[in-house]
Write a structure and sequence with these properties.
about 500 residues; elongated; 7-stranded antiparallel beta sheet; alpha+beta; single chain
């Protein structure tokens, strides 16, 4: 009986489970019949809406152009950025290299005592170390202490000469004045500042302690002349020459303005004297006795005995004659030589300029002469032509700066011989002075190319041979016209008839 009860209970439980399963199956069949179509329709609508939303639209040509332009700009900016990054890297590398070179050059300069050894020698702000380094570099690259090798003679920067009242410059500009008063405010302030700075150095307390000879007080009236030139990338150099303690003594002060306040660089005292020796080299025998007699008469009248006459029995050569004259001195005598043409006249002031602007082993002096126009044209309205001394006037109607002449030069014998002297292969006149000048330009010597107010090239007729070809004859005549008179004077000669006719009309009407 107990087993039967268990069985019935189990049976009932089993039947109940079967009944639930059956009802679930019926529900599934009903859902499939009734709900599935609806669900499928909803899904189809959702898919349709998604497809409609994601459908690609038709492209606008203008929009495509904008997109292409943006892409191009993006590529360009990326290329520019890459280029900048490369340049920055290169600049960093160059900066490191320049810093190393600067340090090495400063060490060498300090060792050679070229640059100041401490900040006390230049007016500096101790906190501006970078500015100090820049000024030191500028100072080291200038030609103050020694010359630099230049590629050609056209690179030489000439000096302008000035006094307290006049400035003699080559860059005439629109004024076309080879000399002028420093009336422009910038010129006046610049030159005044340089003179005051030099006087401050000369009259400073530190110079009174050196020797008793320097106890005198210098004034602007002691200024003999000054030289100045500007190097566009570095600054302006001033060389001021003052009267010293006697007739034979001069003091030169050099200043450097690195596009900022004046900086003292060095002071050089030059002892001048009146020792002058004339060496004449004569070619051939014709009229030699007359030349000798003239020199003897000069010695007798002036008691000037420093004359050497050398006769050469060979064909004339300008370079050969100067070479022989230079080598006539003993090897141990390093004399200061002045090469001069016969058509040049100079004053005693030029001898001072020659002495102070040439320095053995360091500087050679190539003065720029003032070339006179034809006196018969300049003074055609005068009753008589003035004397030679009265013709030595610097003005736009009396002459021009002979910037293309290199025959006049002051240089020491040792520098002349070390550079190789003149080219002995050149015969007659011409080119030997230019070739010597080029040798100096390419050397380590400093070439002082400056206008000089005390040496003049006197006018003499220029002959253009009729045997010259047409083009060279035309060039010769143009050169002749340049040395005859100024532009305005040539115009007056050209329109002389018209000017005279106008004068006659005015005379009759009055």
């Amino acid at each position: 009986m107990q087993n039967s009860g268990v069985y019935l209970a189990s049976k009932c439980a089993c039947n109940s489970g079967l009944d639930l399963i059956g009802k679930t199956a019926m529900l599934k069949r009903w859902l499939l019949v009734r709900v599935a179509p609806v669900a499928m329709g909803v899904c189809c609508c959702a898919v349709l809406l998604y497809l409609l939303a994601c459908r690609p639209t038709a492209r606008d040509p203008q929009q495509e152009g904008f997109m292409a332009l943006l892409q191009e700009r993006e590529d360009s900016h990326k290329h520019y950025t890459d280029s900048l990054e490369k340049q920055i890297a290169e600049l960093k590398e160059a900066l490191q290299e320049m810093t190393l070179q600067l340090k090495e050059s400063q060490d060498r300069a300090k060792t050679k005592r070229i640059l100041p050894l401490g900040p006390e020698s230049i007016n500096k702000n101790p906190t501006t170390s970078e500015l100090e380094e820049f000024f030191r570099l500028q100072l080291n690259h200038t030609e103050i202490n020694s010359g630099v090798s230049l590629p050609n003679e056209y690179v030489v920067i000439p000096f302008d000469t000035f006094t307290l009242k006049r400035v003699y410059h080559l860059e005439t500009g629109l004024t076309r004045q080879p000399e002028e008063s420093p009336v422009r405010k910038d010129h006046r302030n610049e030159l005044t500042d340089s003179v005051e700075a030099a006087l401050h150095i000369l009259n400073g307390p530190q110079h009174h302690l050196v020797s008793s000879r320097r106890k005198r007080t210098f004034s602007p009236a002691d200024l003999i002349e000054g030289l100045t030139r500007t190097e566009r990338t570095r600054g302006t150099v001033y060389e001021l020459i003052f009267k010293g303690h006697g007739l034979q003594h001069y003091v030169k002060t050099m200043l450097f303005r690195p596009f900022g306040p004046l900086v003292k660089y060095r002071e050089v005292c030059i002892q001048g004297d009146d020792r002058v020796h004339l060496t004449v080299v004569y070619f051939g025998h014709e009229q030699f006795d007359q030349v000798k007699a003239t020199l003897v008469e000069t010695t007798r009248e002036t008691h000037f005995r420093n004359i050497t006459l050398i006769q050469l029995d060979e064909d004339f050569s300008s370079g050969r004659g100067l070479e022989v004259g230079a080598k006539a001195w003993r090897q141990s005598q390093d004399i200061l030589m002045f090469f001069c043409d016969v058509d040049v006249i100079f004053t005693s002031d030029f001898l001072t300029s020659c002495r102070v602007n040439a320095e053995s082993g360091k500087k050679v002096y190539y003065p720029i002469l003032f070339s006179q126009y034809n006196p018969s044209v300049i003074y055609r309205n005068y009753t008589h032509v003035p004397s030679i001394q009265q013709q030595l006037i610097i003005g736009k109607d009396t002459g021009f700066w002979r910037v293309f002449g290199y025959g006049m030069t002051c240089q020491y014998r040792s520098d002349f011989l070390n550079i190789g002297g003149f080219d002995q292969n050149i015969k007659g006149w011409g080119m030997e002075d230019v070739l010597l000048y080029r040798k100096h330009v390419h050397s380590k010597l400093m070439v002082v190319r400056a206008s000089s107010r005390s040496i003049f090239h006197m006018w003499h007729e220029k002959v253009c041979s009729g045997d010259l070809p047409a083009d060279r004859y035309q060039m010769c005549m143009r050169s002749k016209a340049m040395t005859e008179a100024s532009h305005g004077q040539l115009g007056e000669l050209l329109f002389k008839a018209d000017i005279q006719a106008h004068f006659e009309r005015n005379r009759k009407s009055s």
